[in-house]
Amino acid sequence: MVLGAPNVVRGASHAGNVAAAELVAEGLCDALASDYHYPAPARAAWRCVELGLLDEAQAWALVSERPARLLGLTDRGRLVPGQRADLVVMEPGTRRIVATLAGGQVAWMSGAVAERFVG
């Protein structure tokens, strides 16, 4: 079952459906996704950790490895040799995404991380 990451972040469904966090807690969530709010998957993963529903590895698998597996994308979703190397880089204190890499290539950078590369 694929659930909406924004639902986890908000703590409820905007349409009155079941709260996704409840289904995550019951082990019924195969993946978290969002088709309209790009920050939601990362925020939902952290929210699952904050709520004590999952540990960090389990939470991040819901927004990386598990969606890739459901879509049959066997070359991505995990950090292992031979994989595609799609990454997000976060500031530890703020959890703000400061860089993304797609297929091992820098796709976006911001703030101090970008300054280190340019400076």
Describe this protein with a few key phrases.
36% helix, 2 domains, 119 residues, three-stranded antiparallel beta sheet, alpha+beta, two-stranded parallel ribbon
Number of domains: 2
Low-confidence stretches: none
Count of alpha/pi helices: 6
Beta-strand percentage range: 15-25%
Q: Roughly what percent helix?
A: 25-40%
SSE order: EHHEHHHEEEH
Please provide the count of β strands.
5
Average pLDDT over all residues = 93
State the end-to-end CA separation: 45 Å
**Lateral arrangement of strands in the main beta sheet:** 3-4-5
Shape: globular
**What's the Cα radius of gyration?**
15 Å
Class derived from helix and strand content: alpha+beta
The major β-sheet equals: 3 strands, antiparallel
Please, could you describe this protein's structure?
The protein has 119 residues and is α+β, with helices and mostly antiparallel strands. It is 36% helix and 18% strand. It folds into two domains: 2-76, no CATH class; 85-119, no CATH class. The chain is globular. The N and C termini lie far apart (45 Å).
